[in-house]
Amino acid sequence: MTTTELPVLRWGIVGCGLISSWFVGDLCLPDRPGANTKHIVQAVASSSKSKGSAFVSKHCPSEKPTIYDSYQDLYNDPNVDVVYVGTPHTVHLQNTLDAIAAGKHVLCEKPIAVNARDAKKMIEAAREKGVFLMEALWTRFFPITTKLHSLLYEEKVIGDIATVFVDFGLNMPIGKADPQARVASKSLGAGALLDIGIYSMTWASLILDKSPHRQAEESPSINATMTFHDETLNAAERIDEQVTAVLKYPDIKAQAVCSASLLYKGREEFARIEGSKGSIAIGGLAPSKPGYLVIRIQDQEEKRLDFEVPGFGFHYEADAVAKDIRAGRLENEVCSWSDTLTIMSRLDAIRSACGLTYSQDG
Ligand SMILES: NC(=O)C1=CN([C@@H]2O[C@H](COP(=O)(O)OP(=O)(O)OC[C@H]3O[C@@H](n4cnc5c(N)ncnc54)[C@H](OP(=O)(O)O)[C@@H]3O)[C@@H](O)[C@H]2O)C=CC1
Ligand SMILES: O=C1OC[C@@H](O)[C@H](O)[C@H]1O
Fold first, then answer.
1. Interface pTM (ipTM) of the complex?
2. pLDDT tens by residue, 26-47
3. Percent of the chain beyond pLDDT 90?
4. Probe residue for ligand 2, chosen from 195, 202, 263, 317 as the CB with the greatest number of ligand atoms within 8 Å
5. pLDDT at residue 225 is higher than 70
6. Number of folded domains in the chain?
7. Is residue 320 domain-resident?
8. Residues with CB under 6 A from ligand 1
9. Which residue, 85, 112, 138, sits at the end of a domain?
10. What is the pLDDT of residues 137-170, one digit of tens each?
11. Where would I find the GFO/IDH/MocA-like oxidoreductase domain in this sequence (predicted)?
12. For 334-362, what is each residue's pLDDT tens digit?
């Protein structure tokens, strides 16, 4: 099918910051192999029209979106099918609830909210209004994750899985960032766990929660530790710069060691799954954007599988959203409401164990 014959989905982009620029770039990629949808940037909303116009000229010059200086005006636009929320964590709740109230489907950036309680509110609102809602945990949608699952559980190439190690290191110390930026401002949700630890936890979940041997009702136990940018501050003021969580899954005799740090750039091979017969490493530009697998089996030559990704890879989640909306589904099966709540509850548990709060926790 040529691009012009594909069904269309019209996006309204809320917030013209970094992630929205990456996302629209992928929506506009021409002639993607396997594309199921022609994505249109129908509208953008920003704090000012000039910022919105500059964003469009730079990041999606081939599109002719309506530019709003009010998020609400975008939610009210009858030509917008789905709203993409690309704002800081702490405003996801309000932005998403407003979009849903206006009857829009929503794809909301990660973390969907600051805590599981707020995530539940968003899910309940979507359920009641009968609209689609998904957290933009884009990593789940890369073809590499499906291949990994099949290597682990269908081909069983490394035998019984014992330990998963995942590390997301980003050289972005709090002290070096602009204090007003969302990565350094506590009121905008700054901190390693919510920003990048969520990916380490997602990989562990993708690998171990999806084991066919799991007994779903048994949640893993979690032990965690954090270091803070300023250790002298109280729970409400401090910002986590490093975090490590150890998850124990007694039912499958497995464990995961998940870490995240803003103090160094992590290794390209960011994850390793150890099994009774060997290991599989996952590598890529970042743990959010995986690119290859390395299979190492005892007494065998190691094997590397590379996965070509056009653009950043945000189109995989965008295509999944489009397919669900067309089918009338309210949630996605790869990033279900239950998946989102599982991870958010674990992030809550880690924060509670380490003494880290946000004002949203109430
Ligand atoms: N999936 C991924 O790989 C990534 C995801 N993210 C996620 O995306 C979200 C946004 O991150 P990022 O794009 O880096 O952030 P930026 O600060 O670059 O952009 C956020 C935009 O949100 C808007 N905004 C709305 N309310 C506020 C507010 N109170 N304070 C500041 N800005 C506000 C602004 O747009 P305007 O002025 O136009 O209204 C701002 O430019 C985060 O939740 C983050 O976790 C971020 C990076 C990568
Ligand atoms: O989601 C993310 O992934 C990549 C990081 O650069 C960014 O801070 C984070 O929000």
1. 0.99
2. 999 999 999 999 999 999 999 9
3. 97
4. 195
5. yes
6. 2
7. no
8. 15-19, 46-47, 51, 86-89, 91, 109-110, 136, 138, 182, 188, 195, 288
9. 138
10. 999 999 999 999 999 999 999 999 999 999 999 9
11. 153-280
12. 999 999 999 999 999 999 999 999 999 99
Distances (CA, A) of 241 to 112, 231, 261, 298: 20, 10, 6, 37
Ligand with smallest separation from the Cα of 48: 1
- Fill in the amino acid letter for 77: D
**CA–CA separation, 74 vs 194, rounded Å?**
27
R_g over Cα of the chain: 20
pLDDT averaged over every residue in the chain: 97
Same domain? For 284 and 200 the reply is: yes
pTM over 0.95? The answer is yes
| Pocket of ligand 2 from Cβ distances under 6 Å | 170, 195-196, 286, 288
Q: Are 13 and 20 in contact (CB under 8 A)?
A: yes
For ligand 2, atom 4, which residue shows the shortest CA distance? 288
**129 and 239 in one domain?**
no
Residue nearest to atom 5 of ligand 2 (CA): 196
Q: Label residues 330-343 b or e (16+ Cβ within 10 Å = b).
A: bbbebbebebbbbb
**Which of the four pLDDT bands, split at 50, 70 and 90, describes residue 1?**
low
Question: Could you identify the residue written with the tokens 């992630």?
Answer: 19
What is the span of the domain harbouring residue 296?
Answer: 143-308+333-361
Ligand number, closest to the Cα atom of 139: 1
Q: Residue 110 CA: which ligand 2 atom is closest?
A: 1
> How far away, in angstroms, is 109 Cα from ligand 2 center?
11
Distance from residue 233's CA to the centre of ligand 2 (Å): 25
CATH code assigned at 252 = 3.30.360.10
DSSP 343-358: HHHHHHHHHHHHT---
The residue whose C-alpha atom lies closest to atom 19 belonging to ligand 1 is 17
